[in-house]
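Lay summary. Proteins are chains of building blocks that fold into shapes, and those shapes determine what they do. In this project we predict the shape from the chain. Here is one chain we studied, written as its sequence of building blocks.
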Amino acid sequence: MSGAADKARFHLEQSVPELREWERRDIFSKDEITSIARKRSDFEHTIATRGASSPSTYARYIAYELNLSTLACKRVVRRRLKSTSSHSSQKRMFSILDRGTRKHHGSLELWMQYLSYCRTQGARKRLQRVLTECVRMFPTKPEVWIWAARYEMDIKGDVGAARGWMQRGLRFCPRRTELWIEYGRLEMEFVAKIAARRRILGLGKAEADPTMELDSGHLDVDDDEEMDADEIALPAVSAEEFETQDGGERKRGSGLDQVALEKLSKSPALNGAIPKAIFDASMKQFAPASPSTASRTDGAWRIIDQTAADFFHMFAEFAAPASAPCAGMLLQHVLDNTPVSQDVERGVQMASCMCRHPVAIVEFDAPDFPSALRESLKRIKQARTLDMEKEQKQNLDLALSSWLTPMLEENRLAPELKLVLKTTLAILDHGESNASQ
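And here is the predicted shape, written in a compact code that computers can read:
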């Protein structure tokens, strides 16, 4: 017990200078300082005692320190005091996180908290070290690979490094649908950023080429020889073309940015070939071992149905005219290339997506929205006649109702169209009630 007390005392002594500074500058009162010291003492003695702490103990300690630091910063601003150095607070947080991840190295939540704190503090060197250790500890956790890729894409602006993280993650988690979906989302965000920059520079609207096929650039996660280099084959895009993502700002004045963007508009990257290849590879990965003998009840078909629907919804997020120009082509590609069972035309989720497709690429206030909605309602009638089991039909009606209901709250929708939607919802609700009886 004395060893635990000594450890706790050592770490408490490290915080004394910070507490004295807070009291001297009147950031916290003397009573508040006493309360802070007592609270820290309780935490330190708990985590220093063998068997007394858990990952949740460290999580509460971390949350307390973060709230305390936030409160101190707010009081400094409100009282117009000279800003204090956050070095001591940052050092203390790193110490707690280090000890927590060493003691409970199997807690992914603590590791993710550590990574998030490093990111907010801009501690890039430490973040790289922690991320490397985290990947070694949890190579089969897709959230780790997704976090790393998002960091490279959102913070560092390095789409090449982000793609590398996703591809390595797929080597360890080839059958995790969320990793495939987030990989496709990352590529779509890159396409949307390039398209937005083209519009800002007045280079015209980048049109997706629906006839573009992948000649040699394709994803294949089943061939071990092709995966030896930690890379998945993708449509070729030169380094000059990718300069527009992280280096274009330096070139803007010389006009080279426009040249690079014009090159990129003709490459597979902007025309949706990479997201399309990712979707095709995911369908190949989840396909049943023997498609000809697998029935509609085979679990693989349900996974394919849900994964394809997730891709459809993700691509639909970029279907706005001011977003990715290739989204419409990709939505159609998902509908045309989703594998189906021999004894059923479509799964519940993809049948729902087929109904959504006409209005997915049209704005509510667009002149052609009424005709698109008419086509969607026609497809709803067709989908409800598919050869499905009772439970599947009920799930289809539920999926369609959950899609149509939010549209009633859309202010841009004409009253006549809302009336049509209400009638359709009444039919779907009646079908659900009959199926449940």
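What the prediction tells us: Residues 292 and 342 are 7 Å apart (CA to CA).
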